[in-house]
């Protein structure tokens, strides 16, 4: 099998459920066999509360997602929460910008990531990861601004989480990028894009365009083969649709059906 393991889960997939009843939602995920979580919201709880609930279910949090402002201005608090959760990674998924993403914005992002990544690693023992969102693939030189960010961030302090939909949507090739940059990618969001939807550089698409893995446009076998070879450590399912509870089991079944 190409993907025999149980994937992890991004809390955002079950965001409405977590907001109503976090323990019951963890029960649902535990019953599905999910053990690896990426939390990008504490849903009104403390990090210690969530860690306790995870421990009771033999689940764990491997990555903690935060906003850019908190990352830069509340670094110590972010690190404390990540460590309390038991996470190894701190992830940010959006760089605030207006209009098209520019070289100037990319260079500020590079400087910020190198600085905060160093603090997280050296002072807190955590690894910082940036989750691409599509707008970074604006043309630049012989490549894109994503290439610039990748090339000018310090591998010792800055890793990446590939969101495969937000790589494909702006016109990039997820498998090719995994082959090009290898172990810079430590984490992955697995999601699929509805057939017929045309992408752009906006970093946004209606949530109903998230479909069960294997039913959309992405070449999942090629992407997963490249990801395994690159050494991606954590694979999380993300489904922003309103029917995620129907689609998630289908996505897991699809992953487990893949032959090498």
From TrEMBL:
Coiled coil start-end: none
The family database entries (SUPFAM superfamilies) matched by this protein are listed as: Xylose isomerase-like
Q: Which Pfam families match?
A: AP_endonuc_2 (PF01261)
Q: Which InterPro entries match?
A: IolE/XylAMocC-like (IPR050312), Xyl_isomerase-like_sf (IPR036237), Xyl_isomerase-like_TIM-brl (IPR013022)
Q: Which domain of life is it from?
A: Bacteria
Q: Which PANTHER family match?
A: HYDROXYPYRUVATE ISOMERASE, INOSOSE DEHYDRATASE
| Name under which the protein is recorded | Sugar phosphate isomerase/epimerase
């Amino acid at each position: 099998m190409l993907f025999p393991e149980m994937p992890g889960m991004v809390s955002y997939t079950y965001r409405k459920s977590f907001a109503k009843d976090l323990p019951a939602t963890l029960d649902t995920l535990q019953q599905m066999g999910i053990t690896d979580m990426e939390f990008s919201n504490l849903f009104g709880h403390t990090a210690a509360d969530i860690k306790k609930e995870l421990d009771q279910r033999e689940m764990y949090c491997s990555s903690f997602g935060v906003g850019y402002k908190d990352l830069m201005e509340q670094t110590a608090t972010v690190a404390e929460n990540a460590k309390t959760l038991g996470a190894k990674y701190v992830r940010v998924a959006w760089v605030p910008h207006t209009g098209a993403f520019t070289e100037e914005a990319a260079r500020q992002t590079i400087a910020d990531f190198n600085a905060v990544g160093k603090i997280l690693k050296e002072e807190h023992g955590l690894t910082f990861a940036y989750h691409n969102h599509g707008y970074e693939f604006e043309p630049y030189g012989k490549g894109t601004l994503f290439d610039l960010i990748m090339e000018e961030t310090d591998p010792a302090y800055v890793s990446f989480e590939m969101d495969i939909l937000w790589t494909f949507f702006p016109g990039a090739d997820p498998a090719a990028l995994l082959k090009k940059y290898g172990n810079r990618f430590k984490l992955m969001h697995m999601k699929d894009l509805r057939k017929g939807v045309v992408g752009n550089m906006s970093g946004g698409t209606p949530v109903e365009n998230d479909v069960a893995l294997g039913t959309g446009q992405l070449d999942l076998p090629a992407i997963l083969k490249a990801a395994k070879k690159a050494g991606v450590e954590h694979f999380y399912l993300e489904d922003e649709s309103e029917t995620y509870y129907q689609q998630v089991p289908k996505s897991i079944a699809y992953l487990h059906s893949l032959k090498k």
